[in-house]
Amino acid sequence: MGFAICASSGKVAMVCRKVERFEVVATAGPPGWRLQSLGGASVGPVDEFLLTLAAGGASPTTVRSYAYDLLRWWRWLVASPIGWDVATRTDVRDLVLWMQEPRPGGGGLAAATINHCLAVLSSFYDEHVRAGNVDRSPVPAVGDGRDRHRSPMEPRRLGRRAPLRQRTPPTVPRGLTDTQFTLLFAAMPSDRC
């Protein structure tokens, strides 16, 4: 199934046309992954970004993860239809609304998945702004950053989330079972580790 924006209500709706015209494939050389059309043609802006990402020392799994988030964005652009270089904040908002929509057999995408996708899009457009390929990023800027560069000894101050970023529930650390603890302790070379 493809997806697009319903023109009458402005809400995100499913449509019955295929937009899987792109895929992520592994490559032999850097960056390790690329986005290409089903015909084999590369998607230049994405390939340039992934190459820059790999040159900056990103692991192959990071490059792969970014490629799949950009695949989601590229399919969204094709379904809309919007050019990547003229996308607006409204287009990104509609993508987020679509990602929140319930899927068959469950809810929408997890908040962390949506936030990761927004972070990838933001870095993708920031790179192309620096390269002079686009004038500005359609992804809203991050929050006020009041908690950046703080000493770990200072208490956390909660700042505003950036627009469109999802609230993530606090994570609870998982405990080890007695068997796992015994195996871990037996694998350590000394009890001081």
Describe the structure.
- This protein is mainly α.
- The chain has a domain of 130 residues.
- A two-stranded antiparallel ribbon has the order 1-2. A two-stranded antiparallel sheet has the order 3-4.
- A hairpin with a 6-residue loop joins strand 3 and strand 4.
- Helix 1 runs antiparallel to helix 2.
- The longest helix is centred in the middle third of the chain and has 21 residues.
- The termini are far apart.
- The N terminus is likely disordered.
Sketch the major β-sheet. Answer: 2 strands, antiparallel
Number of helices: 5
Distance between the amino and carboxyl termini: 52 Å
How many whole angstroms does the radius of gyration measure?
A: 20 Å
What value does the average pLDDT take?
83
Give the overall shape: globular
Number of strands: 4
pLDDT under 50 segments (min length 5)?
1-18
Along the chain, the helix and strand elements come as EEEEHHHHH
Widest β-sheet, arrangement of strands:
1-2
Which percent range describes the beta-strand content? Answer: 5-15%
Provide the structure class: mainly alpha
Percent helix: 25-40%
SSE map:
Elements: E1 2-5, E2 12-15, E3 22-26, E4 33-37, H1 44-55, H2 60-79, H3 89-100, H4 111-131, H5 178-187
Antiparallel strand pairs: 1-2, 3-4
Structure in a nutshell:
By secondary structure, the chain is mainly α. The protein has helices at residues 44-55, 60-79, 89-100, 111-131, 178-187; strands spanning 2-5, 12-15, 22-26, 33-37.
Main attributes?
193 residues; single chain; mainly alpha; two-stranded antiparallel ribbon; 4 strands; disordered N terminus; 5 helices; globular
